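Q: My labmate handed me this sequence with no annotations at all. I'd like to see what the chain might look like in three dimensions before we decide whether it's worth expressing. Could you predict it?
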Amino acid sequence: MSASQTVELTDTERAFTALKRAILHGDHAPGEKLKMEDLKGRYGLGASPLREALARLTSERLVAFNGGRGFRVTGVSVEDLQEIAAVRKLLEGAALRDSITKGGDEWEAGIVAAFHRLGMAEKRVLEDRSAMDECEARNREFHQALMGAAGSERLIQLAEDMYDQHERYRRLSRLERSPSRNVHDEHRAIMDAALERNAELAASLNDEHIDKTTERVSLMIAQMG
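A: Here is what I predict for the chain of 225 residues:
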C-alpha cells in the first residue's frame, strides 16, 4: 500500500467515525441534508473520504442516498424505532444467553467493573449535564460487557450495530429523564441475573429495559409529529 493510500484510508476512517458520532449524538438532525461543501468545511476532510464514509453510513442505515438529491440523515419514526428495538432484543438476548453459558471469572469481573464505572458516571451527570457523553459511553460498555463472552464475533457486532441505531433514538430524549424510572436499578437487576447464571431472567430483564426506553421515545416522536 502506498503512502497516499494509507493517508486516504486514515482520512476515510476519520470521516466515518466523526460523521457517525455526530449523527448518533444528534449534531446532524434526522432528515438533514448532508452537503459535501459543508461537510468538507466542518470536518476538514476531502470529498473522497467523506463520500466513502457516507456510503458506509448508508449501509448502516444512518444515512440515506436518493440519486440526484444526495445524502440525508435517515429520518425517524415510531415504526422504525420499534423495529430496531425488536431486532436489538433478539440479538442482545442471544449474545447474553451465550455469554452466560460460556463466560468465566474474567467475564463476571468485567460486568461488575463496567457497572461500577457506569454508576460513577451517572452520579457525575446529576451534578454536571456535560458529563452525559461519558455516561452514554459507560452505558454502552456495560451492555458490551454483558455480551462479552458470546462465542460469535459477528453476533456481537450485529448487536452493537443495533445498539447504535437504538442509541440515536434514545439520545432524542436524554435530557428528559423520567422521575418514575430508575435505570440504575434496571442495570443492577440485569447484572445480578447474569451473575447468577439465570439466562432467561437476564434476557427478559434486558428486554424490559429496552422496551421502557422504546416506549418513552416513541411518545416523544409522536408528540413531535
